[in-house]
Design goal:
Helix content is 24%, strand content 40%. It has 5 helices and 10 strands, in the order E-H-E-E-E-E-H-E-H-H-E-E-E-H-E. By secondary structure, it is an alpha+beta fold. Strand 2 and strand 3 form a beta hairpin. The radius of gyration is 16 Å and the shape is globular. It has one domain: Pnp Oxidase, Chain A (Roll).
Length: 173
């Protein structure tokens, strides 16, 4: 059973789960991948309900996201997916099916060309409308020292994405 919900209905719930990890799923051509995001936000910008997610430019998901310009977020609400989150957050996806490795089942999203994770009961489908490479010269030193090791030029890209669909999936009883 699929139930459409609004961003307002789920924003607090989604943000409370961000720190423990949310699945960001991408597809380009026949390649599907997932990664874990722990930073992000929900906002209303340019007259649109949006999310902002951060992906480092060295991640495999970055390559797919740049090519596809859309993604899904599968939110593990009231599910015990800690092991799957750990696997998907620590293994590079190139040449690896992280979904299978983590015991996750994918399904097609409703409106965009990307997978969702069946074990997660809440899904957001998103289309990238703006992106910006973070400028390390404008990041406070304490944050730079904590999240960006010296000599490492890898930075996050902030993806602003319109939320085009939000829904809960439930198994019929």
């Amino acid at each position: 059973m699929i139930e459409s919900v609004s961003l307002n209905e789920v924003s607090t719930e989604v943000m409370s789960l961000m720190k423990s990890g949310i699945f960001l799923n991408t597809r380009f051509g026949s390649i599907d991948n997932t990664m874990i995001i722990g930073w992000g936000g929900i906002l209303f910008h340019w007259g649109k309900a949006m999310v902002i997610v951060y992906v480092r430019d060295v991640r495999y998901s970055y390559q797919l996201l740049e090519a596809a310009n859309c993604f899904t977020l599968s939110i593990p609400i009231q599910t015990d997916l800690k092991k799957a989150i750990s696997i998907c957050g620590s293994i590079r996806g190139e040449g690896v099916n992280k979904f299978a490795l983590a015991g996750l089942t994918t399904k097609e999203a409703r409106t965009i060309d990307a997978p969702i994770i069946e074990q997660c009961p809440l899904h957001m489908e998103c289309k990238v409308i703006y992106k910006q490479l973070l400028d390390k010269d404008h990041i406070p030193e304490d944050i730079l020292n904590r999240y960006y090791s010296p000599g490492n030029d890898s930075m996050h890209i902030a993806y602003y994405a319109e939320v085009v669909d939000i829904y809960r999936t439930r198994k019929d009883v």
